[in-house]
Amino acid sequence: WRSFFCALVAAFVLQSINPFGNEHSVLFYVEYNKPWLFFELIPFLFLGIVGGLIGSLFIRANIYWCKFRKTSKLGQYPVIEVIVVACVTALFAFPNKYTRMNASELIYLLFTQCGVTNEHDICDYVDRNFTNANHAVPIAEAGYGVYTALWQLSLALVFKMIITIFTFGMKVPAGLFIPSLAMGAIVGRIVGIGMEQFVFSYHESLPWFFEGKCSQDESCITPGLYAMVGAAAVLGGVTRMTVSLIVIMFELTGGVRYIVPLMAASMASKWVGDALGRMGIYDAHIDLNGYPFLDVKDEFGHTTLAADVMQPQRNEPLAVITQDSTTVAELQQIMKSTDHNGFPVVVSRESQYLVGFVLRRDLLLATDNARARLESLPGSSLCVFTQHVPVVGS
Predict the structure, then answer these.
(1) pLDDT > 90? residue 59
(2) CA separation (Å) from 48 to 6, 84, 163, 263?
(3) Which of 82, 171, 172, 336 is least buried, going by the fewest C-beta atoms within 10 A?
(4) Maximum separation of any 2 CA atoms in the chain, in Å
């Protein structure tokens, strides 16, 4: 209930301060008029494949650069590296308006549906007039602004891919989620516009699986949905997340009705990424830095017995404590002659059947408490490690 109460307070505060300015508790809130079509699972799976390819390429390139940084003199001058990358980023990002704007604003722009309030080039369609904001989006031919936005977004994709390879792993807090979402949203929006123009070009002679859905004058393809699916695909290809990725996308967008396209794209992205490389970006950096991490997917061949590892040096006997026959004097002698942090508790010295383990700290605390409560603590007093105290003389 404590976790639930903390979540309740957090949600109340978030709703009260409205940090995103959209009257919603999510960063990229989406609300599309048209549901997705079953046939669209094919381009969604294609986005998953592309996301897996981009993720694998990014991981290989980033790990290669990080290895070069660790083995060359570049790693000795982290401040200079940060300054150079910052200057290059500012120099090449400024001419393109899609790299000049904030990454979160770019993602939100790519996620949103073209409407009466969206005046960006990416929504410049021929003869598309919005006389009523509540009406459905009409199908239309892409105008000059859309094609201009497409090549600018393509350049932005290449730029963000290259610059993120150099920034992730530097001696500054450089993010990975937002750049990955931005790259995926660009790819998805491009594919979504392509699907939209395909339906427009063959509007009068669509295949049977489009009939009843795209035969009207309303647009049945939502490019913003493709951007959202592409963002999940690339982020999944980079991190190899599945369930948590879907939860993150749902929390970011609030689009619960689009769980199936997100699941399909993320699963395809993970399969493709795993086929090209076993580790995600975080696993690869853990392995690169030599952190002590045991992956559940790794298999180890064991040829050493536990007795070979636990045998004391100089062939001394194991320091053990019997459960009901060790005296206080023997216990003090064991702790004095060894520096172990704990001792195994066995049935007896003849039958060393393990029944438990006791820490040195707990033994010292127990003896100190016994001396504080009793007037005297003879060395012959028994230390019992059972639930039932044995009867003396029985």
Answers:
(1) yes
(2) 36, 34, 22, 10
(3) 336
(4) 104
Provide the token pair at 309. 């590892």
Instruction: Pick the closest to residue 104 from 253, 238, 234 (CA basis).
Output: 253
Mean pLDDT over each residue of the chain, to the nearest integer = 82
| Residue spans of beta strands (DSSP E) within the chain | 125-126, 141-142, 321-322, 326-327, 342-346, 354-359, 382-383
At 218-261, the pLDDT tens digits run 677 888 889 989 999 999 999 988 888 888 787 777 667 788 88
Question: What's the CA gap between 74 and 80, in Å, rounded?
Answer: 9
Q: Which of 168-177, 213-222, 268-277, 301-310 has the highest mean pLDDT?
A: 268-277
Nearest to 338 by CA among 316, 352, 319: 319
Question: 25: which residues sit within 8 A by CB, 6+ positions away?
Answer: 11, 14, 15
- Cα separation, 322 vs 68, in Å, equals 56
pLDDT value for 162: 93
Which residues neighbour 60 within 8 Å (Cβ) at sequence distance 6 or greater? 277
Retrieve residue 179's tokens: 């750049």
* Residue 345: φ, ψ to 5°: -105, 125
| 190: nearest Cα among 157, 150, 224, 155 | 150
The predicted pLDDT at position 153 comes to 92
Residue 101 one-letter amino acid: M
Instruction: State the residue for tokens 């050493």.
Output: 304
What's the CA angle centered on 12, arms 8 and 18, to 5 degrees? 145
Average pLDDT over residues 125-143: 65
Q: For position 215, what pLDDT does the model report?
A: 59
Q: Cα separation of 102 and 110, whole Å?
A: 12
Please work out, in degrees rounded to the nearest 5, the angle formed at the alpha carbon of residue 129 by the alpha carbons of 123 and 134. Answer: 90
Tell me what pLDDT residue 324 has.
83
Strand, coil or helix: 95: coil
Is 302 buried (19+), middle (13-18) or exposed (0-12) by CB count in 10 A? exposed
pLDDT of res. 47: 93
